[in-house]
Specification:
3 helices, 12 strands, about 25% strand, globular
Length: about 240
Amino acid sequence: MMFRISNNTRDMSGKTRVIYNSNFDLYAAPVTNWRDTFYCTMAPNPPEPHELLPPCRDILLEYSKQAMKLGVCVFELMSEALGLDRNHLVDIGCADGLAILGHYYPSCPQPELTIGIQDHTDNDFITFLLQDPIGGLKVFYQDQWTDVPPIPRALVLITNDKFVSSQHKVVANKVGPRVSVASFFTTGPIETSKVYEPITELLLEDNPAKYRGTIVKKYLDYYIAKGLHTSPLLHFKI
């Protein structure tokens, strides 16, 4: 079965709700990735059903609804873990936007010569990752790269700063293809002047703010311009 794919672009501005690409940072990154991706902005303004490819149309709409419910629950638990009101992270907009990314990593005849996706940290509030049985995900933990083996019916949670954002990568593999689905909680596609900054309730004299406030668009514009290979947080560090 074949489908005509439109919206093949590296424009990650959010103007197009469904896009397809291989390397969004092709002209900024030091290496290219052995991976194809479709990116769907599912909240707050989801695509029309006809914008989605038929094989994943129904399941993607339902999956995003369930991912949003889970995300709200996790944000509530994280708020409580930080000693904040249960609804704090939801109230400041962390669950306002959701993007679903489908990653396809073809089998590679010479995996030692390339990388599935280079090491990086994600640019959203939190990420849920659903892996298939092939594996290949690694996180940098205790000064070494550690495998994150797939567990059936399990999701991997990737978070940011107070819950430290995990540096991670995917290695290429002769076995495959490898498929994964990432749920990004991000307000990047939302046009807003809201400034995100260190949470006031968590700041103390001996624990001052480490980063300056910024709007999400400026943060994402810098992230996209520099590519995956360096953390954008360094640019906003005080």
